[in-house]
Specification:
Keywords: ATP-binding, Kinase, Nucleotide-binding, Transferase. This is Sugar kinase. Belongs to the carbohydrate kinase PfkB family. The protein has one domain: UDP-N-acetylmuramoyl-L-alanine:D-glutamate ligase, CATH 3.40.1190.20. It contains 9 helices and 13 strands. Helix 4 links the parallel strand 9 and strand 10.
Length: 322
């Protein structure tokens, strides 16, 4: 069994990589996309094993994804193939001002995943389960599937990390999204929202108040991304006192911000696996996120462990404070 497991919807990513519009373009290079897929690539490139749970259609898109994962070293044992529903894909139109992503995922095979997929999973040796708010938002079935996987992982002593990664258009209302996300967060060990996300979900402004909101729920560690300036970690010591760590990010030239949060999450996960302290954990997470924004691809720019070490050692830092 892999050290890490994630569940999500991987998609073929067609990128218009020239100045032409989509209608004008005659070539659309194929890559892979999906928040959890990006995390899986990031974890793998940093030298750790990861397994992917999902449902794919019996089609060319599904074949491409399986082949790409196998070539990348991602365990596909827990991927179920089905007929009668297509594998989702997306079209990415990069822009200097506003990158646009068009999704073709309604009714996809992944969106029809049901909780029984958890029944066949072997949790032996698994250390971390990573989930996001995207897959749980697709349908009530996928939400129940994520909740069932989290419950099963916790029952086996597995640490659960959760990136809310909100997608309001996938929910019937913002209120429904907030309630469902917080219900899932209460089941998890590490919750890692962006500051604006935490403000929305907790209904509070100050990062410390947001952290307390989730620590009071039973979350063990709250990690808040402070935009492109850095991040902060909060937890409680043995006396119940809140302990915080704030670390700045790095100076880079931004090309595309898509995937930055996923890169950040992969840094958190691998740092947890390696037992790094909170300062080194945030430093790594910030570094992976910073490296990711220098690439137009959602995941192909994610660093190896060696490249990450070099980046941290040679790149200037920003300033950050709460």
């Amino acid at each position: 069994m892999s050290e890490v497991m994630t569940i999500g919807e991987p998609m073929v990513n067609l990128i218009a990589d020239s100045d032409e519009t989509y209608m004008e373009a005659r070539t659309l290079p194929r890559q892979m996309a999906g928040a959890e897929f990006n995390v899986a690539i990031g974890v793998n490139r940093q030298g750790h094993s990861i397994s992917y749970v999902t449902q794919l259609g019996d089609d060319w898109q599904g074949d491409l994804i399986i082949d790409y994962m196998n070539e990348s070293g991602i365990d596909t044992t827990n991927i179920r193939r089905v007929s009668g529903a297509a594998t989702g894909f997306q079209l990415k139109l990069p822009s200097e001002t506003d990158t646009k992503v068009i999704y073709f995922r309604a009714g996809s095979a992944a969106s029809q995943t049901t909780p029984d997929i958890v029944d066949g999973i072997d949790f032996a040796g698994l250390k971390i389960l990573h989930v996001t708010g995207i897959f749980s938002a697709l349908t009530p079935k996928t939400y129940d599937t994520v909740a069932a996987l989290v419950d099963a992982a916790r029952a086996h002593g597995v640490l659960v990390t959760f990136d809310p990664n909100p997608r309001p258009t996938l929910w019937p209302s913002q209120e429904a999204m907030i309630e469902a996300t917080n219900r899932l967060a209460a089941k998890c060990d590490v919750f890692m929202p962006g500051l604006s996300e935490g403000q929305m979900f907790a209904g509070l402004d100050d990062p410390r108040d947001i952290a307390d909101f989730y620590l009071d729920m039973g979350v063990k560690k709250v990690i808040i991304k402070l935009g492109d300036n850095g991040s902060a970690s909060f937890e409680r010591d043995g006396d119940g006192k809140r302990v915080e760590t704030v670390v700045p990010s790095f100076e880079v030239e931004v090309v595309d911000t898509v995937g930055a949060g996923d890169g950040f999450a992969s840094g958190v996960i691998t740092a947890l696996l390696e037992g790094l302290d909170d300062e080194r954990l945030l430093e790594r997470a910030n570094a992976v996120g910073a490296i990711q924004v220098t690439s137009v691809s959602d995941s192909e720019g994610l660093p190896t462990a060696e490249a990450l070490k070099e980046f941290i050692a040679t790149t200037a830092r920003k300033e950050v404070s709460l």
